[in-house]
Amino acid sequence: MKDSFFELLSPALERLDGGYAGLPDAALAPPGMEQAAAVLAETAERLHDNYPYFHPLYAGQMLKPPHPVARAAYAMAMRLNPNNHALDGGRASSRMEVEAVRAIAGMFGWAEFLGHLTSGGTFANLEALWVAGLMAPGKKVVASEQAHYTHSRISAVLKLPYAGVKTDGRGRMDLTALEATLSKGDVGTVVATLGTTAVGAVDPLDGILELRKKYGFRLHVDAAYGGYFCLASNLAPEAVRAFERIGEADSIVVDPHKHGLQPYGCGCILFRDPGMGRWYKHDSPYTYFTSQELHLGEISLECSRAGASAVALWATQRLLPLERGGEFAQGLEAGREAALRLHHLLASDPQFMERFIPGPEPELDIVVWGVRAGTLAVASRQAQGIFDRAAEGGLHLALANLPARFFAGANWRDACDDSKVTCLRSVLMKPEHLRWIGEIGERLLSACGTR
Ligand SMILES: Cc1ncc(COP(=O)(O)O)c(C=O)c1O
């Protein structure tokens, strides 16, 4: 397997070192170097106990290999190990962060905004709900029952009341249920998820915005997974309508370490109103002396943050700009097309239909399907068995525990309105997945014992 990482890294590192060539030799001698190669060989052995996340036959959870340019830029930045908390710690990398975040905000149509990178989606959402709680003290946060569990946990940390809102049969927030909750008058913030974790459902943002006119709440969009899909040109009309209005939210989270081709941890929080910076105000007797410019540490809750994340993101966006029709957008479109094909196979090919019940038609690039069986318990057990056998045969899927009502046409005898079933799930994040759907289907059938 050819890895272009080293070819990219070596000349770039030489170039970087050239910038520091005038320094007197410091005879740097990190301890333990005699054993380092042996320890790294052992480390490589230990890493084998991972699924092959970089390969298209890994089609399970949300894991996408970082682009080689992101890995090389990250590794190069490690020579300096900048800290984007303050300009003293990462002057160039802080500027790169500002530029990279501006490009992400631009994707949502925002020129004026406040934003920065975070360690991931959880921390980015934490900042959004923290500000939301300060704007509406004591009021409730609501999100769909399919929203990431981080929202209820963060609300508990922030001591904000929280409620889940029912979803429709495709996992999207149900507007009638939302309105019933809003009419009680105690909601401060609605979280809309554009791309739920389990099935990639896109909440009906246009409908939620209509309700905002009537009930006046703060609207946070968790687009940690789905945000970049606003660049894709092959979404269904309902999802398009939601993404078209994302810029009307008060805050948005998007994770470059999910679909942005970045190493962990790289999340991003954006606020539409730059004035939200006032909530971050604090005194720091140690850090902010070398410049009059705003430091990223003054507008983020985390202090030390990897400047290398910003460097990697900046380099990736320089290579693959966030534009509709560009190579980056085409990669997302390929994953979505792969998901549609797999769903089609499950829904229309008799070999699959006799075994499985497809879940909702994918709105992004995530497919779920249940197992045909007499009862939920048997269907769930068989899903687990297929998952295990597929892995033995080299195909790595995921499992999800989902409402049985997501599987229209299933006749599990014991299913009722709120019962759940364990089903199979595949996140087709890699553009290469498109060419591998046939192979994935073959291996799935083999795992059922029909090959
Ligand atoms: C929609 C959504 N929000 C938030 C998160 C949490 O993000 P992270 O794992 O980067 O903290 C996830 C993770 O999968 C997610 O899918």
The tally of strands reads 11
The secondary structure category is: alpha/beta
Whole-number mean pLDDT: 95
**Order of helices and strands, N to C?**
HHHHEHEHEHEHEHEHEHHHEEHEEH
Strand order of the largest sheet: 1-7-6-5-4-2-3
| Rg | 23 Å
**Main sheet overview:** 7 strands, mixed
Task: Estimate the helix proportion, in percent.
Answer: 40-55%
In angstroms, what separates the terminal alpha carbons?
29 Å
Unreliable spans are: none
Shape: globular
- Contiguous helical run count: 15
Strand content: 5-15%
Bound ligands, each once: pyridoxal-5'-phosphate
Q: What do these coordinates show?
A:
The chain is 40% helix and 13% strand. The chain has 15 helices and 11 strands. A 7-stranded mixed beta sheet has the order 1-7-6-5-4-2-3, with helices on both faces. Helix 8 (205-215) links the parallel strand 4 and strand 5. Helix 1 (5-18) runs parallel beside helix 3, helix 4 (91-107) packs across helix 11 and helix 5 (121-135) packs across helix 6 (150-157). It starts with a helix and ends with a helix. The site of pyridoxal-5'-phosphate has 14 residues, from helix 5.
